[in-house]
Amino acid sequence: VTHSAPMLSLDKAYDEKALLHWASKFEGELVMSPKVDGVACSIRYVDGRLSVAATRGSGVVGEDITQNVLEICDVPRTLSGETRDVEIRGEVYLPLSAFAKVKDQLANPRNATAGALKQKSAKRVRTLGVRFFAYDVLGLDVETEIEKLEFAEAWGFSTVERRLVSRQEVQIGYE
Asked: What is the 3-state secondary structure (H, E, C) of the chain?
């Protein structure tokens, strides 16, 4: 599956100087959220119906995981309201509570998630308890990242906990 826009990995900042340099690229407040270690996923909706889901892959081309994503309980098959062509980007992950039930069989939650998404039997995704949360929406004409997440929530997606912070507050994310 070729991505409509590259799915790039996140820049890393290992100290306050690097973090503030990154933040200088943007105007206004910043959206702060925790990092969840899962598998990046792109889900396209055409005319409001789930069309295709893919892994990040190379960032330009990902693996088709549509059948397995359809088994994730918090991924809507259709979007309510006005019919839309959008792409929801997010993270497929295994909650620690679900991993605790199988930890003697699997190395870690991220590897368990990746393995479940690549299974030929989509049922493994459902029985393992894999989940999804949205962190971006492409194809909307909005002014802020928060507005994108509000649309995703209105469509039935879970989103990651977040809050707006000023540049002076950005370091508190590390504490």
From this structure: CECCCCCCCCCCCCCHHHHHHHHCCCCCCEEECCCCCCEEEEEEEECCEEEEEEECCCCCECCECHHHHCCCCCCCCECCCCCCCEEEEEEEECCHHHHHCCCCCCCCHHHHHHHHHHCCCCHHHHHHCCEEEEEEEECCCCCCHHHHHHHHHHCCCCECCCEEECHHHHHHHHC
